[in-house]
């Protein structure tokens, strides 16, 4: 890992635009170099830039030509961000084919430019962290599938896809399967959490994401020149670099990849269903938790009311007996009133017995609910 400041080349034949971009980048500890044409930029690559802000339309070498030459000379680490006033799909595809990483419109706001540079720095860091792990995993996968034919690769993919539990695992599996057919490409997977983009590199660049967003709006199977697009529910696959001189091979590849993408779509559908099932289980578990809290509150209130009723009954009996002393009642009158009090007390005791039975049933229900709640939480943790 280099400790040098992040190095940025600003390449544009418009001196005023270069001045504006350099001014916007000042104060962020970037090492900045300006170039008025593509030739000067290529001649200065020994300065090891991390990011090149490259104008597309320039006299002499265009930005596309410069990017192609940079990649042809093996400079794959430097990121190329095209700067252009045009952002139609063909321009984006041409920039992608040339090896570009990102795109920014001319005269973009300073905040947009700085954020793009921050993303480039983050991408470089992620690539460094993931490259060694990816190389090992890719080599292992390629070695395991090297003896399989075209059909065997599909069968291997389908078997392995059943073991994928996340979109990340499935997306990387698709990317690692494509070279078995002499192809490379980009993949977009969609589930309840959002969209997931994958490409040959560990981190999908902003330009690649933009292209995937464009092509997912095309038909189910779309081919233009050396590019093939397959759109299925939850899955979009863009394959580039087809051999246009071998239509039979393209036809076989299209059939095999259609099976591959359809299988991936089925696996993604199963993942989405599982996500929905887990969400529903979480909602049910939360409902049990709320019901459990309510039942606990009812049980506590019932116990408190029972105690209060017993106390009131005893207090009422005591008050009546004290009142008899001061009322000057005959023995028969006092006996009659005592009978009323005893009858009322007996009725209250009967009500208390029924209430106790209900309280016991309520307590048993609470214990069952607590057991369900504990089992649901253990299952969610597992």
Automatic annotation (TrEMBL):
Keywords: DNA-binding, Phosphoprotein, Transcription, Transcription regulation, Two-component regulatory system
Gene3D superfamilies: 3.40.50.2300
KW Metal-binding (keyword) present: no
A Gene Ontology cellular-component term: protein-DNA complex
Alphabetized PROSITE patterns for the sequence: RESPONSE_REGULATORY (PS50110)
Keyword DNA-binding attached: yes
UniProt-listed SUPFAM superfamilies: CheY-like (SSF52172)
Source taxon at top rank: Bacteria
Single GO molecular function: phosphorelay response regulator activity
Pfam families (alphabetical): Response_reg (PF00072)
GO biological process, one term: regulation of DNA-templated transcription
SMART domains in UniProt: REC
InterPro entries documented for this protein: CheY-like_superfamily, Sig_transdc_resp-reg_receiver, WalR-like
Protein name: Response regulator receiver protein
Organism expressing this protein natively: Methylomonas koyamae
Lineage: Bacteria, Pseudomonadati, Pseudomonadota, Gammaproteobacteria, Methylococcales
